[in-house]
Each structure stands twice: as C-alpha cells, then as structure tokens.
Amino acid sequence: MIDEKINLLSGRRSSYLFLAGIYANELTPHDLKKMGKSGMIKVLSTWGCTHAKEFLEDPNSVAMENLACEYCRLFLGPGPHIFPCESLFWVNGKREMWGTAALEVRDFYRQYGLEIGEQISLAPDHISVEFQFMAKLIEQELFAMNRPDSEKRTHAIAPQKEFFDNHIARWVPKFCNKVIEVANEEFYQAIARFTKDFVEMEKVNLKLKALC
Which residues have C-beta within 8 Å of that of residue 35, sequence separation ≥ 6? Predict the structure, then answer.
C-alpha cells in the first residue's frame, strides 16, 4: 500500500516537472531524447500528437525548428501571444504582469521556504514556476511518508490543496483552452490537452487526499 502511494506521488511530481520544463523554454533535441526514454512521446500521442515519433527520428529536422518557432509565437511574442502567467488570467481584478496573483504566489512560496532568485528569470506566477512549486510540495510529502509522525504528512498535503485550489485550478484550464484554440502545431495542442486533463485529475486526487 505504501509503495502504491509513493508511486502515485512520484508520478504526480514527475508530471509537474515535465510540464514545468515544457512551458519554460522551447524544446531541444536533448529534451526530446528524455521524452523518448521516459515514454512521454508515446503518452502525448494519446492526446493527439500523431507525429511525435518523427521528432525522435530526426531531432534536428525542420519540424523541430517549427516547434521552436511555435513556442515563441504562442508564449513569447513579439506579436499577440498567450503569456502563461496567472496574473493575465486573473478573475478577481486587473489583468497585468506582476499583478495580484504574482504577489500572492510569491508570498506563498516564501511561506514554504522557496525564494525566487535571480537564477529564475520567470515571473513567480508563470505556469512553470507554479508547477515546480507543486513538485517541491510533493517532495516534502514523500519525505514525510518516511517519517513515523503522520501529522507531518498531513501538514505536507494541506499546502498542496490550498495552492492548487487558489491558483492552479483557477486559471490553468482557461490557459489550456486558449492554447488548444490558437496553436498551429499539434504538439502544443496535445501538451495543452494533457495539462488540462492532468489538472482535472489533480483536482480529484487532492480532494480525496483531503478526506483521508
């Protein structure tokens, strides 16, 4: 039973880290090799990426160049783009870079010992940073599982649900819908579908964990 819980936690952590990397930068041939070894290329085919194997066969192909251009077009600009930050999808106030959501998540990170230093150039409410933070919280739960004090594990679960409910669940599905709508490359459409479904699964997982 403990092994099953550890496997589930490890899988959740891996998914958050994988997606954090995808949204942080454009793909490199090295990233593709890692995706091939981990089985993520095959997984993405389930979400509609039918040409995923082509990237593995020739990671320096025109298709890879197109993916890099698509990443820039979708998430960086300079033209109209979908900047993946919570503040720009904020539902309770003005939508602006480094808005209320960015300040809230920054304070949340500090509360749990994570400082956004100069080595991280992304805004604190960027999807990649928020996903990295969730992975960090899951790491803390994994560590607590090896301790006899069950109260520590409970304390490791609570911030996951709080952060997920108050931040990730409130904006990431909307962001994913927008990416699915405007993406030209099926790879990023598949990534957005996978992200949206993962967030829905997390909603169920965290609700069940809170009841245990």
Answer: 41, 44
Bridge partners (DSSP) of residue 126 are 85
Asked if 25 contacts 157 with a C-beta cutoff of 8 angstroms, the reply is no
Phi-psi region of 85 (alpha: psi -120 to 50; beta: other; left: phi over 0): beta
Query: What confidence tens digit (pLDDT) does each residue in 62-101 have?
Result: 778 888 899 999 999 888 899 999 998 876 656 677 778 8
Domains and CATH numbers, the chain: 2-25+103-211 (1.10.3480.10)
C-alpha pair distances (Å), 202 with each of 142, 163, 198, 205: 16, 12, 6, 5
Q: DSSP label at 125?
A: T
97, 123 contact by CB (below 8 A): yes
Rounded to 5°, the CA angle 99-199-170 comes to 30
CB-CB neighbours of 61 under 10 Å: 13
